[in-house]
Write a structure and sequence with these properties.
The chain is α/β, with parallel strands linked by helices. It contains six helices and nine strands; from the N terminus they run ααββαβαβαββαβββ. The strands form two sheets. Strands 5-4-3-6-7-8-9 form a seven-stranded mixed β-sheet. The chain binds S-adenosyl-L-homocysteine.
Length: 200
């Protein structure tokens, strides 16, 4: 997976490649999908959700340019896989997931594998996770029509926000850098993520 799907397609950050080589993706996918855990695609989770394609995880994570001392927020933690990858690259990771069953499962898997710098919270990620703010990096793993303002508020000056922006059937994976309170935008690639839903 690392050599063909990631390095071979332009992922160059050695720390990202090493983290993705270390985190056992099969532990995060449902039993029935384990055979395909290292295949080049997204895989179904329960509740109509998906664990993102490894390349999308790598691109999103690489765009944060983490060095090891950062505090990071992930919105749409799903299986907990991307949070686990982030936990190898940053000091502290907060993940927010709106579906309680996925939260329980992600917590259980992360705990069983001793990822102890990750916390998963059950909440509407559009509001971020103020208790852990400000963040050096924020990754949104679900598609948004527009950027939730709370996420910009919770991002440090100079911090990066990675988010798929667009409608149901296709988005641009954007990396935004906060400078003087405003966002500088860059498109990483086209992508298709499940939508970020409105919580209560
Ligand atoms: N990063 C995940 C996969 C993300 S799939 C992994 O590594 O497995 C997108 C996830 O976003 C889904 O689990 C979905 O339930 C969640 N989601 C959608 N809307 C949300 C919201 N408003 N707040 C938090 N999570 C949300």
């Amino acid at each position: 997976m690392v050599e063909h799907q990631l390095r071979g397609r332009g992922i160059a950050d050695e720390r990202v490649l090493a983290a993705m080589g270390e985190v056992p993706r099969e532990e995060f996918v449902p039993e029935a999908q384990r055979r395909d855990a290292y295949a080049d695609g997204a895989l179904p989770l329960s509740h109509g959700q998906t664990i993102s394609q490894p390349l999308m995880v790598a691109m999103s994570v690489e765009a944060l340019q983490l060095e090891g001392d950062e505090s990071v927020l992930e919105i749409g933690a799903g299986s907990g896989y991307q949070a686990a990858v982030l936990s190898r690259l940053a000091k502290k990771v907060h993940g927010v997931e709106i579906i309680p069953e996925l939260v329980d499962n992600a917590k259980r898997v992360l705990q069983s594998l001793d990822f102890d710098n990750v916390e998963i919270h059950c909440a509407d990620g559009r509001k971020g996770w103020p208790e852990g703010a400000p963040y050096d990096g924020i990754i949104v793993a679900a598609a948004a029509d527009e950027i939730p303002p709370a996420l910009v508020d919770q991002l440090k000056e100079g911090g990066r926000l990675v988010i798929p922006v667009g409608g149901r059937w296709g988005q641009s994976l954007m990396v935004m850098t906060k400078r003087d309170g405003k966002l500088e935008e860059k498109e990483l690639c086209r992508c298709i993520f499940v939508p970020l839903v409105y919580g209560g």
